[in-house]
Amino acid sequence: xxxxxxxxxxxxxxxxxxxxxxxxxxxxxxxxxxxxxxxxxxxxxxxxxxxxxxxxxxxxxxxxxxxxxxxxxxxxxxxxxxxxxxxxxxxxxxxxxxxxxxxxxxxxxxxxxxxxxxxxxxxxxxxxxxxxxxxxxxxxxxxxxxxxxxxxxxxxxxxxxxxxxxxxxxxxxxxxxxxxxxxxxxxxxxxxxxxxxxxxxxxxxxxxxxxxxxxxxxxxxxxxxxxxxxxxxxxxxxxxxxxxxxxxxxxxxxxxxxxxxxxxxxxxxxxxxxxxxxxxxxxxxxxxxxxxxxxxxxxxxxxxxxxxxxxxxxxxxxxxxxxxxxxxxxxxxxxxxxxxxxxxxxxxxxxxxxxxxxxxxxxxxxxxxxxxxxxxxxxxxxxxxxxxxxxxxxxxxxxxxxxxxxxxxxxxxxxxxxxxxxxxxxxxxxxxxxxxxxxxxxxxxxxxxxxxxxxxxxxxxxxxxxxxxxxxxxxxxxxxxxxxxxxxx
Length: 489
Description:
By secondary structure, the protein is an alpha+beta fold. The protein folds into three domains: 2-153 and 384-488, no CATH class; 171-261, no CATH class; 276-380. The protein has twelve helices and five strands. Strand 1 and strand 2 (184-192) form a beta hairpin. The longest helix is centred in the last third of the chain and has 67 residues, at 338-404. It is flat. The protein starts with a helix and ends with a helix.
């Protein structure tokens, strides 16, 4: 009975310790994740695409959609950094407050202490893979389509004072002066070119107001005190003479279509074949199909070479039973007249050019398909390697925090940034090698976490042995001892 009570009591204590670890890990994880996503968002989206967004007159809802998709797409990139920093801060805080030492003194090993967070990291790695495989392709599809539509959209109408504005198709406008709120105009000139016959329709007005419809499909000009001139062909069929019509008006409304300035929605089917919009099973299927296309292209090129490029030469060389014996090319050419020789030479050059063009075209198609297969393989491994990187970086951060014995935002942040920058630089370096075709995709994508794997094992071993390898006092004492020995000698 006493043993069962002791067992139940120890179980309750372990559960409380597990809850303590999880509560210590989750807040810095989410704070780091939010901060890093925000910084990556500023660099990768806002700064990069700022010129594409300014001056387009985009609706707030379109911008919210674009920024939301971009924000979600950045999350997987920042999860390894959040895991690394949160694990360093969590175990560094426990070690600094001697809570980790108290756990070890009660008989718990480092692995038993880390067990709940190990389970949590494994779950997080699995969720990251599911997110990359199912959610991220959809987000990339939506964001890529929306960004493409925004880039194709024309800038908003910006009519400056005293300058003819030709941004609207078939219209040329000039405004002498605009009010402070830019909706009241004075000294207005409008040239209408919709008839495709020059300035056949012209409008002049002393003043007016400009408004845009709610759906931005039309610009409405309410003109006051002006004239309208229009030239038309002679209704009696006289090609030389033209009729001039003049209209004096007090008030006139002119509707100018702005269909080209609206945000047009592109069919998403055009982007569904990109590697970022596919899951791993779709990537496998498309890569296999592309590999079969490459095989058919190579076989077709070989068949074409054997059938067309060398057919005449092969037939001539193998025609030993022919009544006409084989002769040397030089001897045969001597029997031809200059006209026949030039014709023969021109036919040979044309045949060679056609053969060379077919070979270049086939080679270009094969290279493009090989690049597509390479991109599919890179994306396939990218969806998985992030999950493995989370596990490796956790086993770097947790023992590192236990060794340095510092919590807060000082040394843990510096350490995590250094390790993450090293990991990020290696990832980009090997990724470029894979894109250039100088390294196989699986080697390039998996090399950075595998490089950090021995370091994680080493730090975990040192933390389990209560190493003080980052304690500067040990090194300073050792240097002092060595200096005293040399002084005495």
